[in-house]
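F.,

This is the one I mentioned.
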């Protein structure tokens, strides 16, 4: 019959296409929710996915494991191409860019108990009055210290310093017999140093760029004084000779080796220290502040987003509500939960975690600007010029300010 050959050919082509589709890994079908989750939380993610599926047998959670290396570009490519999964875990600082580019869905209809969340991170995930991500993990840096070194220096480990002057004085007292009192970062990936130095600028009343994002202000008197205080740990020989090369991991290794008495870090270092040196008595305290002022920290962490072109946003939203109950969020996070009430869970009651939790209300997001990476690099380069003796703090921050202003003027 006329057309039979054409119909047969089309039927064979359709069958082949379906077979090929079924053979493709990671392909989602109705009832599937594809979740990109980092490798460091894979086991916990699988446990939660299994629990959700038991309660919702018509919804399959399909994990696809990501790694930190190259993740920003991988996520952006997926969002722009429309070929992404249903849920992606991203750093808070990436969310505004996605929202501005209309690449992710607003989630005001999904988040539960919004008032129970850290206010700063909710603000960071909000664009033009709408919430575009649900934060689940937050963290700030604080001080870890060797309690025996404090005692040897005649200091009371139960009463760590509160102000900058006391912090520097205690660090100098502990610098003796081959031990450095306070290690700062001055090398490695620039984010290590920015995370530790920029909060000092904030707590001293300065900033790196103006609130409207149009003016560089890292060379203000308040900012320069804070940068000088940070670098003085090294210029006063309180921080190790290797400071210009040291990142956060290097400082932890020096601490474990008994070469450093204290350093700024996140609570994620507590477990590795305990494993490497179980007999080391460690304590922690909130980052000291200038007299009469408040402490501050950069609020880091991770949020969930749903791509605008997600195949199954309805079930994805249902799964996000499951992931972000108080108990599940508290279980899933590597550091602290974004929900304030979840901090009451047993796992967060370790006394050494309390100072890190205490920093959270003082945490701030990094400035929302497309030039943040280059701005951070300019500030870091200025700090390195101070540490290497090439420039004094004012000259180094003047140069950094000029470089940052050029970036802002390029818009």
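My design for it:
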């Amino acid at each position: 019959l006329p057309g039979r050959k054409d119909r047969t050919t089309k039927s064979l082509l359709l069958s082949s296409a379906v077979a090929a589709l079924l053979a493709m890994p990671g392909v989602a079908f109705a009832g599937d929710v594809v979740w990109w989750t980092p490798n460091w939380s894979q086991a916990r993610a699988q446990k939660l996915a299994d629990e959700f599926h038991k309660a919702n047998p018509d919804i399959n959670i399909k994990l696809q494991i990501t790694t930190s290396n190259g993740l920003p570009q991988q996520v952006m490519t997926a969002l722009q191409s429309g070929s992404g999964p249903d849920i992606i875990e991203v750093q808070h600082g990436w969310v505004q860019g996605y929202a501005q580019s209309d690449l992710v869905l607003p989630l005001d209809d999904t988040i539960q108990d919004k008032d129970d969340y850290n206010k700063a991170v909710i603000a960071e995930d909000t664009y033009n009055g709408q919430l575009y991500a649900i934060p689940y993990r937050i963290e700030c840096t604080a001080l870890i210290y060797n309690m025996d070194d404090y005692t040897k220096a005649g200091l009371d480990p139960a009463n760590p310093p509160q102000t900058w002057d006391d912090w520097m004085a205690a660090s100098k007292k502990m610098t003796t017999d081959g031990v450095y009192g306070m290690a700062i970062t001055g090398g490695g990936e620039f984010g290590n140093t920015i995370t530790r130095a920029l909060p000092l600028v904030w707590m001293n009343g300065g900033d790196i760029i103006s609130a409207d994002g149009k003016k560089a202000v890292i060379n203000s008197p308040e900012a320069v004084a804070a940068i000088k205080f940070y670098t003085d740990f090294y210029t006063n020989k309180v921080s190790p000779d290797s400071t210009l090369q040291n990142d956060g991991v290097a400082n932890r290794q020096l601490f474990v080796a008994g070469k450093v008495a204290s350093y700024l870090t996140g609570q994620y270092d507590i477990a590795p220290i305990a494993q490497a040196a179980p007999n080391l008595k460690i304590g922690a305290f909130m980052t000291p502040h200038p007299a009469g002022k408040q402490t501050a920290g950069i609020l880091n962490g991770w949020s969930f987003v749903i791509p605008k072109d997600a195949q199954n946003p309805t079930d994805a939203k249902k799964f996000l509500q499951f992931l972000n109950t108080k108990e599940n969020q508290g279980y899933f996070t590597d550091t602290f939960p974004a929900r304030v009430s979840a901090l009451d869970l047993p796992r967060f009651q370790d006394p050494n975690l309390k100072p890190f939790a205490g920093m959270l209300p003082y945490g701030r997001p990094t400035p929302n600007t497309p030039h943040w990476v280059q701005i951070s690099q300019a500030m870091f380069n200025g700090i390195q010029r101070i540490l290497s003796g090439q420039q004094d703090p004012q000259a180094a921050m003047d140069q950094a300010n000029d470089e940052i202003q050029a970036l802002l003027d390029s818009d």
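Residues 1-27 have pLDDT under 50 and may be disordered.

Talk soon.
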